[in-house]
Amino acid sequence: MKKDQHNNETNIEEEDTLTNRQGHPITNNQNMRTVGNRGPATLENYDFIEKISHFDRERIPERVVHARGAGAHGYFEAYGAAGDEDISKYTRAKLFQEKGKQTPVFVRFSTVIHGGHSPETLRDPRGFAVKFYTEDGNWDLVGNNLKIFFIRDAVKFPDMIHAFKPDPVTNIQDAERFFDFCASSPESFHMVTFVYSPWGIPANYRMMQGSGVNTYKWVNNEGKAVLVKYHWEPKQGIRNLTQMEAEEVQAKNFNHATQDLYDAIEKGDFPEWELLVQTMSDDEHPELDFDPLDDTKLWPEDLFPWKAVGKMVLNKNPDDYFTEVEQVAFGTGVLVDGLDFSDDKMLQGRTFSYSDTQRHRVGANYLQLPINAPKKRVATNQSGGQMSYRLDRGPFQNPHINYEPSILDGLQEAKQLGKEHTPMITGNLVRQSIERDNNTKQAGDTYRNFEQWEKTELISNLVNDLANCDKRIQDKMIALAEEADKDYGHHLREGLKNASKGGTSQKPLGNIAGNNASQDAIDKSHGAEPY
Polar residues compositional bias: what residue ranges (predicted)? Predict the structure, then answer.
């Protein structure tokens, strides 16, 4: 007699049945196991313990910088040229060679200083990081919306971030700490000029520029290299906010830039950027009044024209924020054949720091995660480490051989066809700044290129924050402004002379009414009786 199959089943499992991580179907997700319906609970509550212990670990360590982010998938389409020149003259990187060739990308936009749910209206540089899933493996172009940076030497980066982060005692961002560092680091003045202007608050992620910031190299098939800078130009146009406009937006929605990007892609209004490059011969260029490897400087466009090399289109939102946007991991050291490092001291420092922090934040096997894994075969002799879930082995690799070289069917080195780039490096090992620092000239150029409303906003924002700083800091910032441009310095000096005193520097950078916010909360609130 055929047994009644249904009577032998302990549960009915369908495709959409809830299970635990072991694959066990969950029959009661409303109540933990207790002694009686009022408790206490027992230790063998496996389903509850698995659920709550995973919940306790749902957040990986937040990025120290660039914690607040949004992302999207898309593609990069090459023009097959650099401006009107054959791109193979400059680089042998495969993704650029063929007109119309498309490479999948994932882009993460971000703010820098504050935490994962901080307002997207804060005065702050924006991160602009692109992961290209090329046929030769991943290429990460990690940059910001602004084309320069505060410092030129990576050894100063932790101090810079400490100064810009909230005070370690009050846990409140403090403009005096910000300007204390910047006044003591005069190379930062050009970046301060940008950040305190409307360029310090982009309207959203779609309508801002992007830049590689660092100086890289391109290498052609003969092993010859040129210096290169990368620029992303939005086809949607560029839009920035004044401080007052930003505070009005923040009062309504502190996620406005994330929502703007998500909504635009959902309705098919796919944002696009054109990628342009500047190239320069790889030498010291004594004819310039700045060092081309100095990240606080712009390369003049009239001397080093922008050359269009392709465009990027973002056409798909992430399926899951955490899995993709939060776990995506970038590094400036992630280059493919035809791309190389320059001697840029910020780039050299970032190349260690970025990948090191990803191994700490996400884990030793972060490159096995789908969002980070290249879209091609991977075969290494690496194994082990936390959360390893596959072996990066070749299909014909002897499983006993996890080293190289070997004659016992282990992995073999690839044959290199392009000539190796072998730059000559000479000099004493020193701890010195570059010789042509020229800290304020380009800040003056930038100030003069601003429209009048941008100049007015810049001075207003600087005065608003500097008015509550130590006078020694004020004097130094005025001196830097005067050195950059007489009009710049004059307006900053007069603004500080006439500024109201008695406020506090403990508020978000540039914030207009932050001085009174805590008292306003009391004065404008409503009393209530206990319940």
Answer: 19-34, 501-519
pLDDT tens per residue across span 93-129: 999 999 999 999 999 999 999 999 999 999 999 999 9
Distance CA 344, CA 280 (A): 14
Handedness of CA 508, 241, 488, 127 (dihedral sign): positive
- Higher pLDDT among residues 51 and 165, named by residue: 165
Convert the pLDDT of each residue in 194-249 to its tens digit.
999 999 999 999 999 999 999 999 999 999 999 999 999 999 999 999 999 999 99
Annotated catalytic, 360?
no
Check: CB of residue 491 under 8 Å from CB of residue 193. Answer: no
Rounded distance, CA 19 to CA 24, Å? 5
Q: Is 66 considered catalytic here?
A: yes
Residue 346: alpha-carbon gap to chain centroid? 15
Got the DSSP string for 320-371?
-IIIIIIT----TT---TTEEE---HHHHHHHHHHHHHHHHHT-TTGGGSTT
CATH number attached to the domain at 69-368: 2.40.180.10
Judge contact between 122 and 111, C-beta under 8 A. yes
- Active-site position among 144, 145, 204, 372: 144
Bridge partner residues of 70 (DSSP): 109
Residues in the chain: 531
Backbone torsions φ then ψ of 187, nearest 5 degrees: -65, -15
Residues 325-355 have pLDDT tens digits of 999 999 999 999 999 999 999 999 998 888 8
Going from N- to C-terminal start, the domains of the chain cover: 69-368, 440-501
The answer to the question of whether 354 is labelled as a binding residue is yes
pTM over 0.70: yes
